[in-house]
Design goal:
Elements: H1 23-39, E1 54-59, H2 65-76, E2 80-85, H3 97-105, E3 111-116, H4 121-126, E4 132-138, H5 144-158, E5 165-169, H6 176-187, E6 191-195, E7 211-213, H7 216-219, E8 225-228, H8 244-251, H9 255-258, E9 266-268, H10 281-284, H11 292-312
Parallel strand pairs: 1-2, 1-3, 3-4, 5-6, 5-8, 6-7, 8-9
Helix pairs in contact: 1-5, 1-11, 2-11, 5-6, 5-11
């Protein structure tokens, strides 16, 4: 008896995280993103796929890469894109997140791309609006589109995700990027290690299906992918390591530590990079092995795919339960 064909539909109204997505759903998002990588390299990058749709970028934290790529993604698909400045909005005047959601909902947007400093805040907002919501990063919880763009970058270079050995190194404790990548890579059959000082590893992280190392050379042994993380000093209250200089000595990626990984191991970083702290400049700019700039390029394609897929699941305002 032949197997039933895989569904090509994405059954979720929002993209709030990677946790809970199936391998088929992740593959659908990656496959759709792939076509936009090539589209974005053409002279005429614009399409009318989302003409008439309205996308609002609502970022409660500063962002360069994520917000800009969501804006580019929406405009290249033909949507109307609004970047809402929280610094000058009613939020600064004391308006609650729920009131903000209700106000925006009354304007009938089709998609909200939201970044917020509190874990779970975007889920709360998504329960109060009738449009699609994309999590652009919430606290230390998740950053799903970053994990998708990282996965597509790896897949394009290595041809697969399954069976790869991936090391995620640095400030795992405060990193939503690490959490989303752990969920995605485990779901797609990769092996994941985390490497960090004991003070920057969440308790019981082994439950997420990762191996934990506190020594870079041991952790990087035979790895296919070396994914560095930014030190998130804005989320740190207290001393997590003696000094930046000592942190780089033990946990900053340089060629000496990288020698433990496979000779063709890829070097990744979600940005912004702290050169000389998390990663040596020579390593970051290694043309043959670093895919850091490629990650930025692929980020636009991934966000185009997510906007297209979620918009297809959202009916016109007149048909929603307003």
């Amino acid at each position: 008896m032949s197997k039933a064909p895989k569904s090509t539909a994405f059954p979720h109204r929002h993209l709030l995280g990677i946790e809970g997505l199936s391998p088929d759903e992740i593959s659908l998002l990656l496959d759709r993103s792939e076509k936009y990588v090539e589209q974005n390299r053409k002279a005429d990058k614009k399409q009318a796929t989302l003409r008439g749709r309205t996308i609002i970028n609502l970022f409660f934290e500063p962002s360069t890469r994520t917000q800009t790529s969501f804006e580019l993604a929406g405009k290249r698909l033909g949507a109307d894109v609004i970047n809402m400045s929280v610094a000058t909005s009613s939020v600064r005047k004391g308006e609650t997140l729920i009131d903000t959601a209700m106000t925006l909902n009354a304007m009938h947007p089709d998609v909200l791309a939201v970044r917020h400093p509190d874990s779970g805040a975007i889920k709360l907002l998504s329960d109060k609006v009738n449009c699609a919501v994309i999590n652009g990063g919430d606290g230390t919880h998740e950053h799903p589109t970053q994990a998708l763009l990282d996965a597509l970058t790896i897949r394009r270079r290595k041809g697969r995700l399954e069976g790869l050995l991936v090391a995620i190194c640095g400030d795992v404790l405060h990193s939503r990027v690490a959490r989303s990548n752990i969920h995605l890579l485990n779901t797609m059959g990769a092996r994941v290690r985390v490497i960090a000082p004991r003070t920057l590893v969440p308790s019981s992280i082994e439950r997420l299906g990762v191996e934990v190392f506190h020594d870079m050379r041991a952790g990087l042994q035979d790895c296919d992918i070396v994914m560095m993380l930014r030190l998130q000093s804005e989320r740190m209250q207290g001393n997590f390591f003696p000094s930046v200089r000592e942190y780089f000595h033990f946990f900053g990626l340089d060629y000496e530590k990288l020698a433990a990984a496979k000779p063709d191991a890829l070097i990744m970083h979600p940005g912004p990079m702290n050169r000389g702290v998390e990663i040596d400049s020579l390593v970051a700019d290694d043309f043959g092995r670093s895919v850091i700039r490629e990650q930025v390029e692929i980020g636009v394609a991934v966000r185009m795919a997510v906007l297209e897929i979620l918009s297809a699941n959202i009916p016109p305002p007149a048909d929603r339960n307003l």
